[in-house]
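Q: What does the assembly look like in three dimensions?
Context provided by user:
Components: two
Sequences:
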Amino acid sequence: MQQIINFIIRNKNFLLFLLLFFIAIVFTIQSHSYHKSKFINSANFISGGVYNSVNNISEYFTLKSQNQLLSEENNRLRELLFNSNINTNSNYLDSVLLEKSYTFFAAKVIKNSYSATDNILLINKGKSDSIKQDFGVITTQGIVGIVDKSSSRFSTVISILNTTNSSISAGLKRTAHYGSLRWNGKNPELVQLIDIPINAKVNIGDTIVTSGQSSIFPKGIPIGVIQDFKNDVTENFYDINVKLFNDMTNLEHVYIIENKNKEEIDNLLNE
Amino acid sequence: MNSAITGNIIRFIALVLVQVIIFNHINFYGYLNPYIYLLFIAFFPVKDNRTILILTSFFLGLSIDMFLDSGGIHAAASVFIAYIRPVLLKSSFGSMYEHQTIRFSGIDLGPKIVYITLLVFVHHLILFSLEIFSISKIIFILQKTLFSSIFTILLSIIISIIFSKNTK
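A: Here is the predicted structure of the complete assembly.
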């Protein structure tokens, strides 16, 4: 017994090192698996608060470009509104408008990252704004990612620029062929679309949109255009490089999408 | 003694904040960021307890991980260099370290550069191996390690020169 205690005391630095290194590796491995419970994330009051106060200052630097984006969005919506056939002055109820299946929340990105291989964003809405896991996040131009962890005031978002976690169902706008969206960790302007079958007609410049196959994003949210493509190793599918519409390095105002039917769809699929 | 502890605590908090607020947003050439919080581990007083250094390095790395949502990669790399620091000290400063007379304020630039280079390179290699987490992308890991290391080493040496109390 004495010898064991002596051994521990003599090697206490080494043992402490091994223990802490092991804990760190466990955290790392957890961060590489999708939606595994993470103890260490930035959606807490310390890091959220710090990023929030920094963002209060730094948002002024991008004010001009963000205003430009918002006014373009306003313009587009105004065009839609005045050219639509919905008669807003009628006195009958349009039942289509009553049963909305998607709810939108506006939020602000307070921490953006695109230089790592697994990028995670932080937004300033959390559980108290009824944000939950697996809500989609988009901007006016395209998709951003999926909500992961929420605290009461902040949430982390798994960016589409994430090599391990992200797999969003996306497809061609022209046809109904769809595959999944991945990122190879290199260029923040390009993502990869895999598993598009070889018999689909693919051209450079085709628009890629969300497929609506998952219960997270509605169908038809723009993602990007095809920059180049080649056959993958099995010769059955295409490997497509997609140039994003979104500038992932300059994100400020985002919209969070809640699918009201998600629970029903997931229950049905899991039965 | 108390003022030394307070100094270390202030340095800890200041380096974490400077790292997450400024140096993680540089994104030079798209993806290169310097990790200057290593200066805390590099210039932790030699005479102080090694166990405390290992423990504080772990929490330093973990705070960076919390801000960057990177799991435990900074914690792992920081603990590793904190543990092997005596070896690096011995190989860069030689007999001066063995006689326990070393003080970081009064050392020459040459050994200092060697010491920081070794420390930063080992740290970045572990950091990016864990971040990318795939043997097949070894070229990408080495590339990222090399370029980020150069960036970190340059900045660390500049900062250490600016903030060193020159008592020569």
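Follow-up: The two ends of chain B are 23 Å apart (CA to CA).
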